[in-house]
Amino acid sequence: MRKCPYCDFNSHERGALPEQAYLQALLTDLEQDVALVEGRTVETVFIGGGTPSLLSADFYQQLFRGLRQRLALADSAEITLEANPGTLEAGRFEGFREAGINRLSIGVQSFNNQHLQALGRIHDSQAAVAAAHQARQAGFDNFNLDIMHALPGQSREQALDDLQRAIELAPTHLSWYELTIEPNTVFYRSPPTQPDSDTMADTESAGFALLADHGYHRYEISAFAQPGRECRHNLNYWQYGDYLAIGAGAHGKLTNVTDDTVHRYQKTRLPEHYLADPGGARRQWTRVEKDERLFEALLNGLRLPGGIALTQLTATSGQAPERWLPRLQPLVARKLLRVENERLACTETGLRHLNTLLEQIADQL
C-alpha cells in the first residue's frame, strides 16, 4: 500500500498490520472514554481511513463484540466501513457483513484508468466495478461510491462519464466532489493541472442534473442519496451532534448536558505512539466556549442545502437569533444566505462559494 498524492488523512505506509495489538489498543482506548458517554446509546459507527478494509473480518467480529460489551449500541445502528477496491479479495465483503457492518463506502474516485493512475490509486476500473457487485452479492443493500471530478487532465465529458458509470452500479448513496489540493500532500508540493473554473462549474451543474434525474437528491454540499439513504453518521456531524473518537488520529466532540459544556479532542496521531500507550491517547481536550459554538454550528449546518433550524442554533449557542442574525443581513441581501421557515440556509450561489461565504460570516460574527 502507498499513500495517495492528494490524501491529507491520518494514513501511514506500513508493512504487516499488527491486528491483535491494534484491536487491544482500541478497546483500551475506549475504556478510558466510556464514562464520557455513560447512559447514551450509540446510533452510528463510522470506520474511516486510511484503509480499514485491509483488516480482516475476524478483527471486526472481535471489535464489535468488544464494543457491545462496553457501549449501548442501538439494534438499528448504521455501521459504515470505508473500503478501497484494490484491497478486497473475493469473500471479504461477506465477512464484513457477518461481523455486523451494514454499510460500505467504496473509494472508487474514477473509472478512467489514466486518471486513477494520476491519483495514485492501486485499483483499476475493472476492480472498482467488481467491488460494487461484490458488495451487493454479499448482502449490502446500502453502500456509497466516492467519485471525484476536476481531476488532472479530465474533460467535462470524462467527469460526467465517471458519474454515469457510478449511477449504473445503483449505489444508494453517491459522494461526488471536486479534487481539492490540501497542504501536506504530494499534490500541494507539486500541483497538477486541473480544469479551469468555468469547466468545473459547467461540469458540476451538469452532474447535479444527472444525479437528480436518477433519483439522487443533494442533501449535503457533495453528498447525494436515494430517499431515506442519507448517511446518518455524517448528518450527525453536520447537525452539530456528538461523536466519540477511538483510534489513532481520531477526533471527537462531546457535550456534557449537566453543565452545558462542549469539548473537542483528538487521539494520538502516529500509530506507533498510539499502540505504545492507548490508555493515554486522549489529547487536546479543549472546551468550546458558547461564543464559538454559533460559528461551529453554522460551519457544519450550512453544508446542508436545507440549512439549520434557528431553534437549534439557539440551543447550541445560547444566543437568540435577534442577537446575531441582523449582522448577516448583508449576506442575505446579496442572495448568499436565505432565512425561510425558521431556518438559515445557503442559496445556490452561497453553496457554490461556501468557503468564501463562511469567511465572511466569521468576519460578521
TrEMBL record:
Keyword Ligase: no
Name of one Pfam family that matches: HemN_C
Domain Radical SAM core, first and last residues per copy: 1-220
Keyword Iron: yes
PROSITE patterns in UniProt: RADICAL_SAM
InterPro entries: Aldolase_TIM (IPR013785), Coproporphyrinogen-III_oxidase (IPR034505), Elp3/MiaA/NifB-like_rSAM (IPR006638), HemN_C (IPR010723), HemW-like (IPR004559), rSAM (IPR007197), rSAM_sf (IPR058240)
Biological process per Gene Ontology, one example term: porphyrin-containing compound biosynthetic process
Gene3D superfamilies, alphabetized: Aldolase class I
Entry GO terms, CC: cytoplasm
Signal peptide range: none
Superkingdom, natural source: Bacteria
Keywords: 4Fe-4S, Chaperone, Cytoplasm, Heme, Iron, Iron-sulfur, Metal-binding, S-adenosyl-L-methionine
SMART domains: Elp3
Cofactor needs: [4Fe-4S] cluster
Function: Probably acts as a heme chaperone, transferring heme to an unknown acceptor. Binds one molecule of heme per monomer, possibly covalently. Binds 1 [4Fe-4S] cluster. The cluster is coordinated with 3 cysteines and an exchangeable S-adenosyl-L-methionine.
Protein name: Heme chaperone HemW
Lineage: Bacteria, Pseudomonadati, Pseudomonadota, Gammaproteobacteria, Oceanospirillales
